[in-house]
Amino acid sequence: MDNANYVGLTRQSGLMREMQAVAHNIANISTTGFRKEGVTFAEFVVAPTGSGPSLSMARADVRHISDMQGALTRTGGTFDFAIEGEGYFQIQTPGGLRLTRAGSFTPDAAGNLATPDGHLLLDSGGAPVFGPPDATAITLSPDGTLSANGRPVAQIGLVVPTDPNDLQREAGVMFRADAGVEPVEDGKIAQGFLEASNVSAIAEITRMIQVQRAYELGQTFLDREDERIRGVIQTLGR
User: Fold this and answer.
1) What is the rounded distance in angstroms from the CA atom of residue 228 to the CA atom of residue 184?
2) Is the C or the N end of the chain the one with fewer CB within 10 Å?
3) Digit-coded pLDDT (tens) for 32-47
4) Domain enclosing residue 213, as ranges
5) Burial 159-173 (b: 16+ CB within 10 A, else e)
């Protein structure tokens, strides 16, 4: 296989990964707290060997998470929280600390706030957020202070990855930051709201069409290159 085919195949492989990312985004248009994902294309250059030319190929192995704010939808739920601006909630999972923008929580049997999957919401100190089950009024201040009957009981902490490029999607609306996290200064949380997915249906469908056309053009190029090589072999074999 010559260089032209290698270049074409790496491009096709990258476009396929991008199509998968776009399809995943579209499938989660209605998922609360979902952050859309994209693929970053980069050029990979292989140094020449001997008198041969260098080889430049496209790579699309890096995925990036959009930090664009999703629309806030009023629910009126006491334990529905939406982040305004940057930041993520910290939740405790069996695999360790994870981050999320999905702010729908409910008290578990012990009174700790948890996600629908049972992962505990953590405060600024890394402890579970407790909501007294006998409280008649639970309120949340914009700075994350949770109060029961007018008395503060917890401070919900918002964090961001220490390295913005380190954020890795683990499952749905959960993310992992292996390089660590740091607190968000002046973070704001709205009670009685949920953040919708930040995916734009029109933008993603448009991108899907663009990627599909680019893939078809790439496949046409590979087919013609294959025909050219076959023709050369047949000519030389006579």
Assistant:
1) 58
2) C
3) 999 999 887 666 666 6
4) 3-67+199-236
5) bbbeeeeebeeeeeb
Say if CB 84 and CB 189 are below 8 A apart. Answer: yes
Sign of CA dihedral 87, 160, 33, 24: positive
Provide the whole-model pTM: 0.81
Q: What is the mean pLDDT of residues 17-32?
A: 92
CB 219 within 8 A of CB 12: yes
pLDDT band at 1 (very low <50, low <70, confident <90, very high): very low
Query: In Å, what is the CA distance from 222 to each residue of 4, 8, 32?
Result: 8, 7, 41
Percentage with pLDDT > 70 across the chain:
85
Q: Indicate if 204 and 189 belong to the same structural domain.
A: no
The DSSP letter of residue 166 is G
Q: Are residues 16 and 99 in the same domain?
A: no
CA–CA gap between residue 86 and residue 81 (Å, rounded): 14
Q: Is 39 in contact with 60 (CB distance < 8 Å)?
A: yes
Per DSSP, 128 falls in state B
Q: What is the pLDDT of residue 17?
A: 86
Q: What is the pLDDT of residues 88-132, one digit of tens each?
A: 999 999 999 999 999 999 999 889 999 999 999 999 889 999 988
Q: For residues 184 and 226, state if they share a domain.
A: no
User: Do residues 92 and 24 both lie within one domain?
Assistant: no
Long-range contacts of 124-131 (CB under 8 A, 24+ apart): 124/155, 124/156, 124/157, 124/183, 125/155, 125/157, 126/90, 126/97, 126/157, 128/92, 129/154, 129/156, 130/154, 131/79, 131/107
Query: DSSP assignment, residue 122?
Result: B
